[in-house]
Design goal:
Strand 10 and strand 11 form a beta hairpin. About 5% of the residues have low confidence. Helix content is about 40%, strand content about 15%. The protein has a single domain, classed as 3-Layer(aba) Sandwich (Alkaline Phosphatase, subunit A), CATH 3.40.720. The protein contains 17 helices and twelve strands. The termini are far apart. It has about 475 residues and is α/β, with parallel strands linked by helices. The longest helix is centred in the last third of the chain and has 32 residues. The strands form two sheets. It has an eight-stranded mixed sheet, with helices on both faces. A four-stranded antiparallel sheet has the order 9-10-11-12, covered by helices on one side. Helix 1 packs across helix 13, helix 8 packs parallel to helix 12 and helix 10 packs parallel to helix 13.
């Protein structure tokens, strides 16, 4: 090859692994992602490190554990002190590393702040699009008055042709894809690092009707769901979004329609790379930041708690020069390993510190199954602290809720959940008391792992202070 490979890194917000056909879903809503999986390696057992979007993106871009970088919550929920501490730690973001290696770095996202670092071009609609700014301001006001928001949305839809997605402040996937295609075309003779963050699959799951495939299920009534939600503000928001639907299966159909829509746009990117003859020299990565509960475990259409519908995410890596294609790798891994893998494939090693994630290069080249005994998952959203240990056989969740949950406005208290995943893959039968010895082993493991990470964090802070001393 004349140059190092391009890297196209796609993160689909709120994408459940088990809603892709290549991961076993019954609906055919992901033909392009499925095709890309056939051209590379699909990691069957990839999980989040934490469930908040901002936390996940920070972990992915740094390769550092959220328990070290300190951003453990979702977008706009982390404290100013947490943000300042993270900035002082001075971890390198993936785009900064790629830029230092003469890649043209393109970010299509809106998280801003440190997520912008290293990008030559960063599309943030709140900075670049005055119209979007006005819509976001309107959205922030209307979120306080859901019924008024529903009424205004209808007026906008009739008179101005706006979609509810625009009122919600998310950039449409078509717009981002159009821009991605322009940037790929413009920079086709350079080394490209393109980071693309699709938001379409996030609630309220708004997409054109032609992408929606209706199911025959008639399960929980939407009316009953709304009445069961103790947080009335959340119930009002859901009523504004879905109050006219009869069954929650119709909401799931909308979610699947958004997956179908994003898949269509990913297909457009794949086709453009093929047309420009860039495909054979491009590392293409598709993943999610977290999943979404579709009424499982009493959670309605959001990402809360650490069950697998939230924690299990897709990871597909395609790179034509790899010998292995159409491979399903069974390694137990997390999103923290994506950046170390990219840099290892590019033979970039001079970072200045060690990643917490590990390279998956051997999985890609030799289909090696990594000998990972367990993974640790954390959550700090909605005023709750939760930790989970997951092995291939067991899932242990430790709840430590000191405050009222900001999502459901209830106290969950302190309790343990243990599930035998071989017998109970849906995590419905808590056997923590029945298997008390195993539960205690997992409690000890969580405490030991957190203590080790805390020591490492103290060392990082001290090392950074010493480095900044002016002699």
């Amino acid at each position: 090859m004349n140059k190092q490979p391009n890297v196209i890194f796609i993160v689909v917000d709120t994408l459940r692994a088990d809603h892709l056909k290549c991961y076993g879903y019954k609906k055919n809503i992901s033909p392009n992602i499925d095709k890309i999986a056939q051209q590379g390696v699909l990691f069957r057992n990839c999980f989040v490190n934490s469930i908040g979007t901002e936390s996940a993106f920070t972990t992915i871009a740094t390769g550092i554990s959220p328990f070290l970088h300190g951003i453990l919550k979702g977008t706009l929920q982390n404290s100013e002190d947490d943000k300042k501490r993270f900035i002082k730690l001075n971890f390198k973001m993936l785009a900064e590393i790629m830029k230092s290696k003469n890649y043209v770095t393109i970010g299509l996202d809106w998280l801003g702040r440190w997520h912008k670092k290293g990008f030559d071009f960063y599309y943030d609609p709140s900075d670049r699009d005055k119209k979007m700014k006005r819509e976001r301001f309107l959205a922030s006001i209307l979120e306080r008055f859901p019924r008024l928001k529903s009424f205004i949305s209808k007026i906008y839809s009739k008179k101005l042709g706006f979609l509810r997605r625009k009122i919600s402040g998310f950039t449409d996937g078509k717009l981002l894809t159009d821009l991605a295609l322009q940037m790929i075309e413009k920079n086709k003779d350079r080394k490209i690092f393109l980071f693309l963050h699709f938001w379409d699959v996030h609630s309220p799951y708004t997409c054109p009707k032609n992408f929606v495939i209706r199911s025959d299920l008639n399960n929980l009534k939407v009316e009953d769901m709304l009445q069961s939600i103790t947080n009335k503000k959340l119930a009002d928001i859901y009523h504004a979004w879905w109050g006219k639907l009869r069954y929650t299966s119709e909401i799931i159909d909308l979610y699947d329609g958004c997956v179908n829509k994003v898949d269509f746009h990913i297909g457009r990117i794949y086709q453009k790379l093929n047309e420009l003859r860039l495909l054979d020299n491009t590392i293409l990565i598709i993943t999610g930041d977290h999943g979404e509960s579709m009424t499982e475990h009493g959670v309605y259409f959001t990402h809360h708690k650490l069950h697998d519908e939230i924690a299990h995410i897709p990871l597909i890596i395609s790179y034509p020069p790899l010998a292995n294609k159409n491979v399903i790798n069974e390694s137990l891994i997390q999103q923290i390993s994506i950046t170390p893998t990219i840099l290892d494939l590019l033979e970039i090693s001079d970072i200045g510190y060690e990643f917490d994630g590990i390279s998956l290069k051997s999985c890609l080249l030799k289909n090696k199954v990594l000998d990972t005994n367990f993974i640790l998952i954390g959550a700090g959203d909605n005023g709750a602290e939760e930790y989970a240990i997951r092995t291939k056989k067991y899932k242990f969740i430790q709840l430590d809720h000191k405050n009222k949950c900001a999502l459901c406005l209830e106290y969950h208290g302190n309790k343990d959940l243990l599930f035998d995943l071989k017998k109970d893959p849906l995590e419905l039968n808590n056997i923590s008391e029945e298997k008390e010895e195993i539960s205690q082993e997992f409690r000890n493991l969580i405490a030991f792992t957190l203590k080790s990470l805390s020591r490492k964090k103290e060392e990082l802070v001290l090392r950074n202070k010493i480095k900044n001393i002016k002699l």
